[in-house]
Amino acid sequence: RMETDCNPMELPNNTGFEEDSDYRDFEGTDVKDMRLEAEAVVNDVLFAVSNMFVSKTLPCAEDVAYINVETRERNRYCLELTEAGLRVVAYDFDQTDDKLQTPYHETVYSLLDSLSPAYREVFGNAILQRLEALKKESQS
């Protein structure tokens, strides 16, 4: 049995995993990959929202993770993260609503941009500050 912490990049190319459906999408990814991806998403934009964390009650799997986000406008969402992207699956933490058919967004930035004008402002200001800092660095 293979350890789940195995780095697939260290595997020789002729392992034959390609034929095994369990491992078809394994190359270049970590088995715990969507939870890690969700944590990275949260860390990326936490500064620009009121609250954001990976759901501990909804199941994370290789191919799906759920993220709770509260915008600065105090609106709560549960987001689903899959290979297809991110989408709103409920208008509260730790919920999913199968009747809700919301579009997928390729990035968390695009999704939050569509949900929260305050996010857009905070994120835009952060980019401006970073650009100003880079400008000062290049001038010194």
From TrEMBL:
Residues 34-134 form the GSKIP domain. It comes from the Eukaryota. GO terms for biological process: regulation of canonical Wnt signaling pathway. One of its GO terms (cellular component) is cytoplasm. It holds the Pfam family GSKIP_dom. GO terms for molecular function: kinase regulator activity; protein kinase A binding. Signal peptide: none annotated. Belongs to the GSKIP family. This is GSKIP protein. It comes from Nicator chloris. The gene is Gskip.
